[in-house]
Structure formats: C-alpha cells, structure tokens
Amino acid sequence: MMRIFRRESAFNLFLLPSIIGLAVFYIVPFGISVYYALIDNVAARNFVGVANLTETWNNAAFQLALRNTVFFMGISIPLIMVLALVAALLLRPMPVRIRRVFAVFFILPLMIPSASMVFFWRHLVNLNGMVNRLLFPAAPIDWLNSDYAMWVVIIIFVWKNAGFNMILFQAGLDAIPRDYYEYAQIEGAGRFRQFRIVTLTYLQPTFFLVFILSVVHSFKVFREIYLLTGTHPHMRIYLLQHFLNNQFTNLNFQLMASASFYLFGFIFLLVALLYKIQQRQTYI
Question: Is the pLDDT of residue 104 over 80?
C-alpha cells in the first residue's frame, strides 16, 4: 500500500508543473474575465450583474462580428473537413512513398511564416495583384475591401490548414482494419455502402479531433486578416477577434470580458454537442 501511495505521489509531482501552468495561464485569467464582466469598471468595481452582457449583446459591432464569425466557421470548417477527407481518400490507394510526398506538399503552408504568407496573398489579391491582372484587367477588384473579402479569407484558411487535416484523416483511415471492408464486401455492400457503414463509422473519433482543431485554427485566422487589413477591415471580415482586440485597445475590459464569455459559451456548447453525438455513435 505504501509503495502504491509513493508511486501516485510521484505521478502527481510530475503533473504539478502542468497543473500550475494550466491554472496560471488559463483558469485564473478566465476567472478574472468573468469578474470583469460582472463589474462596472476596474476602478469602482461595483457589481452590475448581467448589465455588461446585455450591453455587449446589443452592441452593433459585436452583432456584426458575431454574424461574420458564425458565417466564417459555418462555411470554412465543413469545407475544410470535406476537402481534407476527399484528399485522404484519393491518396489512400497510392504507395506510401508517394503519399509522403503529397503530405509534405500539403503541409507546407503551415511551415510558411505568417509575414511571408501575407506578403504572397497581398500581391495576389490586392487591386493591382496577379488575380486582377490575369482575370479582370479591365475592371480590377479590390478583393479585401469588397463583398468578396470573406471568401478570400475562407480560401486562405482552407489553403493553410487543409493539409494538416488531411494527414489526420490519413491516420484515421490507416487505423481501420481491412478485414471490415472485406466482411462488408462479402455481405454484398458496394463501395458507397462500405464508405458509409465502415469508413464514416470508424472515422468518428478522427472527425471529432479534426473538428476541434479546425475550430481552434479558425480563430487563428485573425492573425492573417490583421496583417492584411489592420484593426478595422472591411465589414464582411470584421470578426469577434477584431472586436476583442479593439475593446482591449480602448481599455474597455467590461465589453471585452463579456464578449469573451459569449465566445467561450458558443465554443463550449458546440464542442459538447459534437461530443454527445460522437458518444452516441454505435460501431458495427
């Protein structure tokens, strides 16, 4: 019994630095944000309840940022997951050596520094960029300052992150035993039914992982938008991250904390719903 107690104590001791880091950099700041969302300002510190949350919800800039963020995530995340899965399925029959070459090719956008990537896209889609020179020389379009700006951001996001998701799907596909496909084929299942019953069923954990990472990466797209357009971009690509950044610049911690609370609640409910669906999935 004493040996087991010492072993558990050693495990807890090794976990202590991670627990301290989690508390200092995540739990404590989140608690401070909740506190700021419930007071009038950092000087008086009077409790105001949900007044800041109501003010934030009724704020026109917040509503615009929320609509744009939901639209961006609703289009880009399903799109990147479908494209990554299709690419993984197309590469699956190929030899391992060729698959590795394609994997390196698709993962390259993640290795490019953000400044270099922004430089490339700026010269591609600005008013005198290559796209306008090749396709619209007579009537050039300022893509990042037009109604097309959101689609440009979606293309950048998919281009940068699709390769990483494809590698994850490849790993998930490789983990499915070939015996399952052979058994389904013996039972008379065609290719589409094998894909629906075997592939999609056993890729559920991978789908969950890819979805979570895609949500995380979707919020990192703010870095590229900020470098491309600054603090006040076109209204079509004004996201929640812009709202948070601008409130921080204006020292309006109450609105910033309230918006962070809404953002946390949205992501938490989304992940919880998907986790519930994934838990209910039955396997053959």
Answer: no
